[in-house]
């Protein structure tokens, strides 16, 4: 929504380029303003028009997002956290930026959420595949 409102190139914001970093703090600030005015703003936008029996809502950022989905959809909500070690993240060219990577938009779910699933993605494709298969089997059983 922010890229649309501000005329940014959405595809370029998805990559790891300097383009994204140029606008990152402004997008965070814009998102904070929207959330203060309406905590469910982004959650409603994520599900608008969805008609499938299973949705994957990626990249929730705050406890209020998780709480919104749980309040609206109850026990059918499954929360999944994907983790990687800091070493792995650095190998993937992640660099900590003060004021960005320590902001609520990046670490708001680091505490206070009991995730249903925790998936480790440290580069071991076999281990990742096994974890995802167990998750998928569980989800299929609940349909």
UniProtKB/TrEMBL annotation:
<keyword id="KW-0963">Cytoplasm</keyword>
<keyword id="KW-0756">Sterol biosynthesis</keyword>
<dbReference type="Pfam" id="PF04275">
    <property type="entry name" value="P-mevalo_kinase"/>
</dbReference>
<dbReference type="InterPro" id="IPR027417">
    <property type="entry name" value="P-loop_NTPase"/>
</dbReference>
<keyword id="KW-0808">Transferase</keyword>
<dbReference type="GO" id="GO:0005524">
    <property type="term" value="F:ATP binding"/>
</dbReference>
<keyword id="KW-0418">Kinase</keyword>
<dbReference type="GO" id="GO:0006695">
    <property type="term" value="P:cholesterol biosynthetic process"/>
</dbReference>
<dbReference type="InterPro" id="IPR005919">
    <property type="entry name" value="Pmev_kin_anim"/>
</dbReference>
<dbReference type="GO" id="GO:0004631">
    <property type="term" value="F:phosphomevalonate kinase activity"/>
</dbReference>
<keyword id="KW-0547">Nucleotide-binding</keyword>
<keyword id="KW-0067">ATP-binding</keyword>
<keyword id="KW-0443">Lipid metabolism</keyword>
<keyword id="KW-0444">Lipid biosynthesis</keyword>
<comment type="pathway">
    <text>Isoprenoid biosynthesis; isopentenyl diphosphate biosynthesis via mevalonate pathway; isopentenyl diphosphate from (R)-mevalonate: step 2/3.</text>
</comment>
<dbReference type="GO" id="GO:0005829">
    <property type="term" value="C:cytosol"/>
</dbReference>
<keyword id="KW-0753">Steroid metabolism</keyword>
<keyword id="KW-0152">Cholesterol biosynthesis</keyword>
<dbReference type="GO" id="GO:0019287">
    <property type="term" value="P:isopentenyl diphosphate biosynthetic process, mevalonate pathway"/>
</dbReference>
<keyword id="KW-0752">Steroid biosynthesis</keyword>
<keyword id="KW-1207">Sterol metabolism</keyword>
<protein>
    <recommendedName>
        <fullName>Phosphomevalonate kinase</fullName>
        <ecNumber>2.7.4.2</ecNumber>
    </recommendedName>
</protein>
<keyword id="KW-0153">Cholesterol metabolism</keyword>
């Amino acid at each position: 929504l922010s890229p649309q409102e501000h005329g940014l190139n959405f595809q370029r914001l998805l990559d790891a380029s300097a383009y994204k970093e140029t606008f990152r703090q402004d997008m965070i600030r814009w998102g904070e303003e929207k959330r203060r005015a309406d905590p469910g703003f982004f959650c409603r936008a994520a599900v608008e028009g969805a008609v499938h029996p299973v949705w994957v809502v990626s990249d929730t950022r705050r406890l209020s997002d998780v709480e919104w989905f749980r309040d609206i959809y109850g026990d059918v909500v499954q929360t999944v956290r994907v983790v990687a070690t800091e070493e792995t993240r650095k190998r993937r060219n992640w660099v900590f930026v003060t004021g960005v990577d320590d902001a609520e938009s990046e670490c708001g779910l680091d505490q206070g959420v009991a995730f249903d699933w925790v998936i480790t993605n440290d580069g071991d494709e076999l281990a990742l595949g096994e974890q995802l298969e167990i998750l998928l089997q569980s989800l299929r059983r609940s349909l």
